[in-house]
Amino acid sequence: MVVATGKSIVKGIAITKIRVLKEPDRRIDESLHEDTDAQVKRFQDAVAKVIDQQNELYERAKETAGEKNAEIFEVHAMMLEDEDLIDDTEEIIREQKRSAEYAVRESFTAQAKVFEEMDDAYLSARSADIYDLENAVLDVLLGIDSDSFALDEPFILVADDLAPSETVKLDKNLLQGIVTRGGSQTSHTAILARSMNVPALIQVKDISDSWDGKTAIVDGYQSCIYVDPTPETMEMMMERREADRKEQALLQDLIGKESRTVDGTAVRIYANIGGPADLPAVKENDAEGVGLFRSEFVYLNGDQSPTEEEQFQAYKSALEALAPKQVVIRTCDIGADKQVDYLNLDPEDNPALGFRAIRICLTRKEFFKTQLRALLRASAYGNLAIMFPMITSLKELMAAKEILEECRTELKNEGQEMGNLEIGIMIETPAAALIADDLARQCDFFSIGTNDLTQYTLAIDRQNAHLEPFLDTHHPAVLREIKMAVDAAHRHGIWCGICGELGADLDLTETFLRMGIDELSVNPKSVLPLRKQVRGIDLSLPQEEQEEDFR
Ligand code: PEP
Ligand code: MG
Q1: pLDDT band, very low/low/confident/very high, at 384 (cuts 50, 70, 90)
Q2: Catalytic residue among 332, 361, 407, 499, which?
Q3: Span 263-540: which CATH code?
Q4: What is the pLDDT of residue 492?
Q5: What ranges do the domains of the chain cover?
């Protein structure tokens, strides 16, 4: 048995086989080849094979994801028949006497760059498809089994790290646990692991490719993974898993009960979601609404910007499923660690301080309007609130509201139905906390994003695992900013909630309630434990364990 330790981000026990996610080694033979006919034939055979693969994928995806989503594979097959691309590749083989792999890399990359530089957003997004096809052809040439991660049985995922776009593509029905070498507590990968509710460890330095296929236990309580566990460990962990199940069953008693303290103070407990797929968890855990719908995950799912209609359907399904409960949908928070190729954002030295969220939306007005129109149309189907992320100034809030009004007028003229809605902002920058009074006059609610608020206040990159020794999640500066935001909100008669990860920190629940917080929005799994905590608090008594003085 091998035991490796890390940091636990989701408690619980997972027992099953490991699958290691490896970036394949696509090193290329750069030597000269006299037998150019043989290399051309290898290239032609590889292309034919990839066309077959794409056609197969098209048929498979048509069954599981519908015709529209499957179309991309048809387009891929057509792209591989492009004469220019074929001629360019064969020319490199014949004239430069290079291997098929070398020629594919040169010609496909060159064509992808041409697309990348096109002004038309749709065409420039096609560069990502060419890179995908380049890898697919190289995989055939190099004998890499690119389909090896298409799994059909439960697995614990082991990887160096995961990008949010990779995480959203995992089969949530089969994924039992996540173990990564990198990662940090408030990275979006960690947040997704929480929302998927599987035991997860980050910063496990000793992961190994040789674990692939082995049976393992992820112990989210002791922050470790046992690979090839001994029968004794297996028995002990199975007992622990059973105890977990019983505890979960006890929490079920809180379904339908009020989130109210002993002295009668009520707080709304909402859930955070990434899309309609999380709605069953919202219901199962009896959340009183959705306090943060991270709409950008709708954007991360595809390889082109979702249309107004696609977005409308996603928002409408959430609103209808939960009506009359409130659903707070945050406008697109792309940028920083959440990148999509089709936006063609320039690489930045400091992406977390860069072109992200509301900054992208205010700059690319048509892109923003597509989302706002979809939201306004969806508002007819439930209790919607729209929330703008990363606000640092009153000017940004006013500009966002102006574009929203423009969309409202357009839709009215088109005769579209719309419902009432609240407009709020995230308080996730120190600037917003400091000017909270000015902002509160212009919106209906605040929701505090403690993940970014902590990152920007303490100057600690939330993606950088090495900085965790310096991270004090209960830092008085952050707690003071939260109090400032709550007080400012109440001075102006609006409500204030928390939707960052700190909202689920049971050690701070009493502190937040004493500040007067109106709503806590947490991952669905934390709703019932939080309700239990709230129901045990008596605000008429002095706070027993005072948090560090933050006033
Ligand atoms: C936050 O910053 O606390 C937040 C809720 O937004 P995200 O984690 O998606 O950046
Ligand atoms: Mg944030």
Answers
A1: very high
A2: 499
A3: 3.20.20.60
A4: 98
A5: 25-142, 263-540
